[in-house]
Amino acid sequence: MSAGPETTNVSSLGKGDGLHQQVLASFPLCDMTEEDLTQNPQFCKLLATLAQHVDKTGLTVQLKTELDKAEQKLQSQRSHWLRSEILHRGLQEMIQDHCVKKRHAIVPPDQSMFYETMQKCLLVAQCVRQLDPSDTTNQDQPSVLGLTPQHLTELIPSEKNVQRMRRSLPQQLEKHLKEKCLSLLSYYQPEWENESEGLKTIKLSHLSALLDKEKKRAESLKETCRENTVLLQRQTQLYLSELTKCIQLLQSLILDHRLKIQTDLDGKKLDYFEGKCELVLQKIKTEMVEIQLDTYTVDSISAHRKIREKLEWELKACKAEKQSVELKLSSFEILGKEFESLAEEYCRLRQEIEMKNWALKEFTKYNEK
Question: Which Pfam families is this protein grouped with (predicted)?
Answer without folding.
Answer: HAUS4
